Amino acid sequence: MAMGIVSEEDFIREQERLISIPPVVEIREQNIGRGKDVGNVPNEVRKIIGEVGQVDRQGALALASSLGIGKDSVGAYSNGATSAATYNEKHPSLGAHVDKVRNRIVKKAKNRLLNALDSITEEKLQSAELKDASSVAKDMSTIIKNMEPEKVDNKIGQQNNFVLYRPMMKSEEAFDVIYSKE
Predict the structure, then answer these.
(1) What stretches of the chain show up as alpha helix (H) in DSSP?
(2) Quick one: how far is CA 155 from the chain centroid?
(3) In the chain, where are the structural domains located?
(4) Residue 14 CB contacts under 8 Å (≥ 6 apart), including other chains
(5) What is the largest CA-CA distance in the chain?
(6) Tell me: the pLDDT tens digits for 49-59?
C-alpha cells in the first residue's frame, strides 16, 4: 500500500491485515548493567571486595556473587575503580584503600624474600649439589629481574646520540675575485 492520505475503509482494512500477520520481531528487555531498582553498591562493600580480590580472586567472585554483584565489578573494585566503565580511573577512596592493601602485601612479601635470601649462606651453597645451586641461581636472577625498575623502551631514551657537522672548508680559489681600484 502506498503512503499518503487514505480513506477510513482502506485504513481499517490495512490495519486488520497487519494484525493477522504473526509477529516476526520480538522485543525483549536487555539485562545489561545494573537493574532498574538496584542502587549503587556501598563503598565499604566495594572496599571489602577489592581487598579480597588482591589476595583471592575466586573468593572475591564468590563474595560478589552472593551479594548479586557481577564479576566485571569485582575486577574494577580490585583495580580501585567503581565500575567496569571507569576501570582505568581510580576512585579516590577506593583506589587509596586498594593501594594500601596492595602495598601491605608487597611489604610482607619483601620481608619474606629478604629472610629467604639471608638463609642462603656461602657454606650452604658450597655444600649444595650442582642441581640445587643452579636452581638457586635461576631463582635469584628471577628475583633481580622482578625487583629492578622497569626500563623505558623507547629508542631515544635508551641512548643519546649527538651528531655534529663541521662545515666544509673551501679553498681561496673557490671564491670569485673582484678587484677594487682603491
Answers:
(1) 8-20, 43-55, 57-66, 71-79, 92-119, 122-127, 130-147, 155-158
(2) 24
(3) 43-143
(4) 1, 6
(5) 115
(6) 999 988 888 99
